[in-house]
Amino acid sequence: MDIFLASLLLQFSEACAATQSAAEVSALVERVTGSLGFDRFAMAGRPLPHESLEDYFLLNGWPPPWLKRYVEKNFFRDDPVVNLVRHANRAIVWSEAINYNALAPKARQVMREAADFGLVDGVTIPIFSQSGFVALFSLAGRRVSLSAPYRDLLRIIALSAYVRLGDLSGANNEKAADVMITHSESECLTWCVAGKTDRQIGKITQRSPRTVQAHLSNLQHKLNAANRAQLIAEAFRHGLQR
């Protein structure tokens, strides 16, 4: 992760930790993702098959007419992007991952109508907890071209916002004081936040990649993080990174 992205991540994480309401989180996400070229965004939890998605929106920056139609037609069930991210622990760029011509008619309808409302292309990020797939975060605009570091940044933004919303609602009750990490873990974490691979961290810290991996795995366990992106988000939330 280059200096610009690392700085943006730090600024976002600090501002996110200072938010006092879901509206403030939404405004912050809108400002940051807007600076990255996105026009619209939404975050929603995962409803059960018999439940309406409407009650599960955590952040809502979709055009109101599109949101109304999406909910009324229960497009969530046929949305090809949703079906992709259920099984992929990575960001999905719509234009890269979806073969429009191969879609089922209802899935094709979802994408066609989304484009009619200006959601021509986008990126959707699954959010996983230790119990599995729990939510997703989508950003949309006219055309999306994202390098790997930008996708990583968006994953961390999504996770940070999700965690903060949980804090504000009382859903999260972990305490920073309960998390104790070693000097070695802290050092590996700092370089992980900077976007370094296990091998690169090993060279910098004079440890083997396997040792680095062990330290970061221990941190994931301590912070109940399902992956590296969530580890970074939780590290900022607990004040383990500044």
Largest beta sheet, briefly?
5 strands, antiparallel
Let me know the number of strands.
Answer: 5
Q: How many helical elements? A: 11
Query: Which structural class should the secondary elements be placed in?
Result: alpha+beta
Give the ordered list of helices and strands.
HHEEHHEHHEEHHHHH
Helix percent band: 40-55%
Structure keywords:
alpha+beta; globular
Write the layout of secondary structure elements.
Blueprint: H1 3-18, H2 22-35, E1 40-45, E2 57-60, H3 64-72, H4 80-85, E3 92-93, H5 94-97, H6 105-116, E4 121-129, E5 132-141, H7 148-169, H8 183-193, H9 198-205, H10 209-222, H11 228-237
Antiparallel strand pairs: 1-2, 1-5, 3-4, 4-5
Provide a descriptive summary of the structure in words.
- By secondary structure, the protein is α+β, with helices and mostly antiparallel strands.
- It is built from 11 helices and 5 strands; from the N terminus they run H-H-E-E-H-H-E-H-H-E-E-H-H-H-H-H.
- It has helices at 3-18, 22-35, 64-72, 80-85, 94-97, 105-116, 148-169, 183-193, 198-205, 209-222, 228-237, and strands at residues 40-45, 57-60, 92-93, 121-129, 132-141.
- A 5-stranded antiparallel sheet has the order 2-1-5-4-3.
- Helix 1 (3-18) packs antiparallel against helix 2 (22-35), helix 7 packs across helix 11 (228-237) and helix 8 crosses helix 9 (198-205).
- The longest helix is centred in the middle third of the chain and has 22 residues, at 148-169.
- The two termini are 16 Å apart.
- The model has no long low-confidence stretch (mean pLDDT 87).
